[in-house]
Amino acid sequence: MGLVHHLQATGLAPATVKRVVVAVRSLHRFLQAEGIATTDPGADVEAPRVPAGLPKAIPEADVARLLDSIGGDRPVDRRDRAALEVLYGTGLRIAELVGLSLADVDLDGSLLRAFGKGRKERIVPLGTMARRALESWFDTGGRPALVPRRGFARRGDAEAVFLNQRGGRLTRQGAWLVVKARADAVGLAAVMWPHVLRHSCATHMLERGADIRSVQELLGHASISTTQLYTKVSGERLRSVYEAAHPRAVRR
Questions:
Q1: In the predicted model, is pLDDT for residue 154 greater than 90?
Q2: Does 204 participate in catalysis according to the annotation?
Q3: Among 93, 131, 199, 204, the one annotated catalytic
Q4: Which of 2, 117, 233, 235 is the most exposed place for a label (fewest CB within 10 A)?
Q5: Among residues 51, 73, 90, which one ends one of the domains?
Q6: pTM for the model
Q7: Which of 5, 6, 74, 117 does the annotation list as catalytic?
Q8: Torsion sign over Cα 159, 104, 82, 220
Q9: Which entry of 28, 132, 180, 195 is annotated as an active-site residue?
Q10: Active site residue 221
Q11: Per-residue pLDDT tens for 25-55?
Q12: How do residues 235-251 score in pLDDT, each as one tens digit?
């Protein structure tokens, strides 16, 4: 039995099998390149294809419950509310969110400039709720309260939109912990992981009739095929609602 078939027979997920195969191939390639082995037995081993998973979105009601739960007027409350409103309102990736600088935010024009994969720039609109949350964050009791009295430790921190409690730029890991903590507070931790708010933004827009090309531009997808995954999610949800509600579609 070959390596791939053996791993598949153990019940491992396709993505796990692929990672193992790639690691084994890399090891044999290294050994041959260093002269430790004379042959590369992994050269002809093909990694299995991994089926494209469907994006996981949460219902609009759950998103609303999450966002509405962030009350309080502390600087971190204002920051967290603004961060989550922007993530859901614009579909930004977490890395794009923490990469925002003050010059990237145009509150008067309700626009954000985001830098995606490969530093590809795009302009995204800011919805009313996200803009208001950012205005509150930029107000006296928000971001200014976290600015270090002795100055910023790093040059890029001074221009960061989102700061941590020490006055440094909020990191990707820090932003993810914020999302997880806020989700846990309303019982959504089990369904919340990176990209869920981004997936929810796209799915909800398509469900409400948004044009797929517009959603592609909003999310910064290089290929329309990536955005089309969200149409499958919406279609599956429509079918489940139909089968549950239509008197001639109920399964017995």
A1: no
A2: no
A3: 93
A4: 2
A5: 51
A6: 0.73
A7: 117
A8: negative
A9: 195
A10: yes
A11: 888 888 888 888 888 877 777 776 755 555 6
A12: 666 566 556 665 656 55
